[in-house]
Fold:
Amino acid sequence: KKDLILHKDRTEKSSCFRLNEGQILKISATDNKKWCLIETETGKKGWLLVNNFNYFPDMKAEASDIFIGLSHAD
Structure:
């Protein structure tokens, strides 16, 4: 739905890059705290910063505002 800002490393001060909306992504890994490793179909990888399981502070948005087809359970 929207562009995604990803970090090159798992630190909040690491450099970031933007993925344009409309790409198919895979969540490859997580630290179960605040980082998810995102991978594109072409193999580009970056770390997504997450707060409270659903909020992305770099984009100031919740998961439902960013992703289509995201499913989750606890």
